[in-house]
């Protein structure tokens, strides 16, 4: 099994990898099909317009996650990695007036946001909770082309045929290619490490170098790390009210200012270190909630956990190094790949245990490795962090990635550091293997009511104070 570190960590815009980045990416793929000469429907005339319908969780929480806006931007030709968040409002306002998109390499296409992007609450598509259907029309209103897409978490997108196994998926092809250490489970990962005398980070690096030069790998790792830290820094500078109507105040800047003021005054309680971890995570997730640039880690909703723990390592841990940061990211990505491969990182599929739980597990493993932990201790750290997120629901109030998501990332970071510390105090032997914990998460997700899987139909989402 192989998922690249750059599949797990992707730069994009908030507020959601599955509900914003995924639909935008799907729309881009649809445009590629229109450009690429894929066969149109029999009898269709000249291409003239496009439309979209959103289903399942994409419908129930699509407004709060800006899914409709993401689809429109994607059909304009924009992609998550290069989208300027500051340009979004103007582009959407212009489309509302002109009702036309002009993607490169295609004719001008009609797209009326008021009627051509539909939230279909009644039809749940069979493949996944996050489903969408994109259609193109000819000049007389006949169907020109149609495709069903599923946004399966972390910005990953699959067509209906790919999900059903009828067509090869890009990521499956990668998994089937030849790599020196193709571990598909934590048990295999530990066995390979022991047999070859390699750390998890070294094996992950060797797999990446099967496709990339060392210079490319190092450059791309630096881009990801810097994007994480830039997001933290921006979140610590910004103030005001988050969009969406809940009137949630940004708090990261105020808390950070308080922490800075207390430095050197010999007044801090020992547990203040938890406030530092929380504020780093909250800074990222406030940026995500505002539609800013973030890195899927492994999702947008959980994007604050891993950067927070990485920042904690850099700023607060004795002996932190550049190489330690690199080891952190490679190790975390290896754990994230295992979780995605064997369970899910999608809140709409398994609840927030798959998002913040996975992120905490990845961050715990990364920190443990950076601090010199053995492979066995790293696996133990990942298991401890994941185990104590099992059963966590995804119940965003008003479908916005704000309550409880922002604070939840802070607590996920604290759990990650605690898990790494506990693992480093042991010798790596423990009762519950990581593989079993991942399987427990998968089973729990299957049994979990859909009310608690990113539909905002249960939990905190329906227990909100009177305004």
Distance between the termini: 50 Å
Give the neighbour order of strands across the main sheet: 5-2-6-7-8
CATH topology of the largest domain: 2-methylcitrate dehydratase PrpD
What is the alpha-carbon Rg in Å? 22 Å
How would you state the average pLDDT, rounded? 96
What count of structural domains?
2
Strand elements, count? 9
Structural class: alpha+beta
Write the layout of secondary structure elements.
Layout: H1 5-8, E1 11-13, H2 17-35, E2 47-56, H3 57-60, H4 67-76, H5 88-98, E3 100-101, E4 109-110, H6 113-116, E5 117-120, E6 130-138, E7 143-153, E8 156-159, H7 160-163, H8 170-176, H9 186-196, H10 200-208, H11 214-237, H12 252-262, H13 272-289, E9 293-295, H14 305-316, H15 322-342, H16 347-350, H17 356-370, H18 375-387, H19 405-425, H20 434-447
Describe it for me?
The model has no long low-confidence stretch (mean pLDDT about 95). A 5-stranded mixed sheet has the order 5-2-6-7-8. A two-stranded antiparallel ribbon has the order 1-9. Helices cover about 50% and strands about 10% of the residues. It has helices at about 5-10, 15-35, 55-60, 65-75, 90-100, 115, 160-165, 170-175, 185-195, 200-210, 215-235, 250-260, 270-290, 305-315, 320-340, 345-350, 355-370, 375-385, 405-425, 435-445, and strands spanning about 10-15, 45-55, 100, 110, 115-120, 130-140, 145-155, 155-160, 295. It has 2 domains: about 15-165, D-3-phosphoglycerate dehydrogenase, domain 3 (60s Ribosomal Protein L30, Chain: A); about 170-450, 2-methylcitrate dehydratase PrpD. It is of the alpha+beta class.
